[in-house]
Amino acid sequence: MTNASVVRERLYSAKNDEHKFPVNYVYDYLGRCTGFLSLPNLNLNEHLQSKRFLRMGKFSSQKNVERSDHGIDLLPLAAQLPWATGIRSCRQSKYWELCLDTTRTLLEHFAADPSAAKVFRSGVSLAEMSRQELGKKMEDGWVKFAPYFFSDSDPKRMRILAVLMVFIFIFDEFWEMHDASSFNIVYEQFIVRMKSGFTPPVEDRTPLLLLIDQIMAEIKELDNASGHLAGRLMLDEMVAFFSRPPPSKAYENMEDFLLYRHKDAAIDFVLACTAFSLDFPIDIRSPKLARYYRLVKDHVSIANDLGSWAKEKRAYDRGQVLYLINTVDAIKNFLRLETENAAIAMAYALQLQVETQIDDEIEYLIAEDSLTDNEWRFIDATLLVLSGNVMASIVMSRYGGEENRLMKDAS
């Protein structure tokens, strides 16, 4: 059993006490089925600790380069978390309370808005889904993703990222529960407003639609002020995510499954959000970084699927969602494994293999020395997205549920 006082006292260094994002749950989602696997020794850990990536490119001659003051370092191994990755560095935004407040405000708009009140075949509406989220202790739920993913974002951009994460979770949960015709209604009502060239009507806008249009305008203003289109590209990836086809009934092999899972997990959107958070343009389809990006997408998919497996399988078995799109399930079927534990172990082994491949690719890129300083900064940030994904999966109530709540230590 995880020691609550150890987690709360050792996850943060003393100088960062004022920025603590409370951890009330710890979920060991691997359980005892991966004990024969060992975490790999990765060179990238030393590079992250020494901030080497921040000194690459045109900054190669500088000795003292720091990440932004918007985030703080976490110490998951010192806190004895069931750390399910060989990537040891992890960070958190200082602005988690801003994320929480922004999320609550937007959910309140959804809950009260008549345009979100239509009841669909599942028996629920977007408004009802939002009310259910408001009834939970949100700081323990999916609100944790943005502060752990985008730790170096400034407050203005973090607020926008928090808004977009609400869209991702509310609309995607709806997508999983409904067929294409039902989701098209949501698409035309809300998502179309995020498309390039959309002009909001002057009249007949509810407070929710006004707020959405305001956020879109703020993103455009930030792009204009920065002189690049990171915000626009981020929105394009969100629209593409909500335009993806439903999953196939069967996949020929693991490669085909993972390529679809990349789309289904919104990983291009996450990469675009990372660039937006850092306030610089990045080509997330650059040939120079194609192999690195592919491995990052594999890692996010597999690691997230391991954390969410029990929750997703339970929802599917109960008929609460139409699809079960999870690496653990895919591996179990492809290899015809007898038990879920065997599939979990194989999925985790695959994740660790991907980590060694990421490490090898980074060493190749260092030796080749052809990336720009922004591309090296992006590698630094995306590696922290990978560890942030694991961190969120461990400490959210969303995946582990009440049985994994940290209890107060006996005095």
TrEMBL record:
Gene3D superfamilies named among the record's database cross-references: Farnesyl Diphosphate Synthase (1.10.600.10)
Xref: SUPFAM superfamilies: Terpenoid synthases
InterPro entries membership: Isoprenoid_synthase_dom_sf
The protein, known as: Terpene synthase
A family per Pfam: Terpene_syn_C_2
